[in-house]
Design a protein that fits this description.
heterodimer, A: about 210 residues, six-stranded mixed beta sheet, 7 helices, 6 strands, about 40% helix, globular, B: four-stranded mixed beta sheet, two-stranded antiparallel ribbon, 4 helices, about 30% helix
Amino acid sequence: MAIKGIGDFFNKIFGNIFRYHKHVKLGFYGPPNAGKTTLANRIAKDWTGEEIGTVSKIPHETRDIQFKEKVDIKFDSKKATFKLIDTPGIATKIDYEEFLHYGLSTKEAKKRAKEATKGVIESIKWLDDMEAVIVVLDSTENPYNQVNVTIIGNLVARKIPVLIVGNKIDLRGANIKKIDAAFPEYDVVGISSKTGKNMEEFYEALFNLIKHV
Amino acid sequence: MNNLTIQFLPYSELAYLSSYKRVKKLLDLINENKIVIVQGKLAPEEEADLIQETMKEISRSKQNKSRFRGIEITTLNPNLKNLGLFQGLKEKIASGFAGGRDIITIIGPAAIIKDIKKDPSKIELFLRK
């Protein structure tokens, strides 16, 4: 009885220290302009002081897979090391004319469109390499979008743990309840990557997510 | 736009094809500027393949007025209108192409369909002028 008690004591002490110290490849997936890079930047900046990529109002700003290695995150008494993998937004259509509305020249717009198509293909190829994924959705947009369903469906099929983030809650028209209703089987956290609102809740959800890795 | 073709694909026409042929058949029809109504839904991996093939097709397409711009796709399961997008579909995720009278997939060229808005029980297609 005494030996078991001592064992429990050590398990409790050392278990708490080591239980959450994992190394996790964490992907950021979602449709274009949902704020994947803004969130990855905030996390990377919070814990390493450096950002991961550039952001823009023009869709498909991220057209290559971007990484940040060895990001040590501490939350409460938990600690884990992440490789952040920011992916290009997944879309079913890309039209260079859309980019002209943002002031790009025709040549720049066509180049961006071509690179964006490759980016989408790369994002899908990288699904197999993820150990956990944050699906970033724009909470001002309708969540009943087939791209969202396809992304989450593919993660489920690969048994990769998923956390859904409803981003841009600082904007008028944000509706987290609608995302909750669309994906009732998943944890949904409403945040603003831009202002940092609810990031504590996000980190709590992140450490709950990696329990399943 | 002078005319619009809507083609119905029953479950039996896709169910026994390989994933590759299923995706190719759908893309071929979309390339003919048809809106296709499928009885059933693609497996998630097939949807991912369809997106990848769509991106390759956009990249190959000549950048003229009639260029291929991609696809619009949505699925509707009337029996799940009050549930989430995944409830009830999980079993079918692993089993490949899922059929049945209830699940419908609407898919078409982005050059014709500007946008699809979907709420759980309603689909609105917005066509380009």
